[in-house]
Design brief:
12% of the residues are buried. Helices cover 12% and strands 39% of the residues. It is extended and about 45 Å long. A hairpin with a 4-residue loop joins strand 1 and strand 2 (30-34). The protein has a 5-stranded antiparallel sheet with strand order 3-2-1-4-5, with no helix packed on it. The chain has one helix at residues 4-12, and strands at 17-25, 30-34, 40-44, 52-56, 59-63. The chain is built from 1 helix and 5 strands. The chain is mainly β.
Length: 74
């Protein structure tokens, strides 16, 4: 039987990567991004000038493909 704390930390240790839309790139190496729920935040990094980007731990890590998605309610 494993320790519940070690199981929890192993789950939380995984970094979450999300796809965001680049709204504006700033001169101080930050970027305003829009999430799928239409909220906007400021991320660190300015490597993606426009379109979609991958966001991990508040940092832009690279461009993301602009793919369609559908939300299906069950």
């Amino acid at each position: 039987m494993s320790n519940p704390l070690s199981r929890l930390t192993s789950v939380l240790a995984n970094k979450q990567r999300t796809v965001v839309e680049v709204v504006q790139v700033h001169a101080n190496d930050t970027t305003t991004v829009r999430h799928t729920d239409s909220s906007e935040t400021t991320a660190i990094g300015s490597s993606v000038a426009s379109g979609k980007a991958y966001l991990e731990d508040g940092r832009i890590i690279g461009p993301a493909p602009d793919l369609q998605y559908f939300e299906i309610e069950v």
